[in-house]
Amino acid sequence: MKMNKKMSLSLMGLGFACILGAAGVLGYTQMQEKSALSFGHEVIVALEQEMQISDISGIEEMKTTAISINGQSYMGVILIPQLELELPVASTYTDALLQQTPCAFAGSIATEDLIIAAHNYTVHFGDISQLEVKDEIYLVDAAGMLHTYQLVLEETLDGSDLTGLYEGEWDLTLFTCSHMNNAKRAVLRLIEVQEETIDITSNTI
Description:
The protein is an alpha+beta fold. It is built from four helices and nine strands, in the order H-H-E-E-E-H-E-E-E-E-H-E-E. Strands 1, 2, 3, 4, 5, 6, 7, 8 and 9 form a nine-stranded mixed β-sheet that branches.
């Protein structure tokens, strides 16, 4: 059966529109990633300076749980050496803030049930599914304490499944949108294996 010329041109036009639309989405995502990367670097530098001051003042006396940078509160820095990531973690969660940095979604380090959310940008949690069980992730809190976590379980959950997200006794949970399906969440479950005091400015991790 021959397709009439008018329909053929219409489908061709739709194809071009889809290509242009995909290119536009890709360009926008790349712009967001570049902005998030720049934002993260600036905050990390500021946090390192504040943590160095905390060292001088005495970590035990300060017992700092958050540091304010440009009016925004940060609970610390997460380090994922396998992905060469060093990222600030905001103390609160909003959709707007998530565009710029990983956020504490629920729980805390103190209560041993911290959940951190981030976008699936490559410069954020986009590649966390590449991590393997027993890999270690580090979290330096605002008081300069280094918490070492070991990956125990990788899961995929529905984006609306908050019950599933909160299930289990995990010291740390990381999650982001799945690259394969934005309606799904890639979820990592970790347990804490070590805690010690460090100077984040020494770059010894």
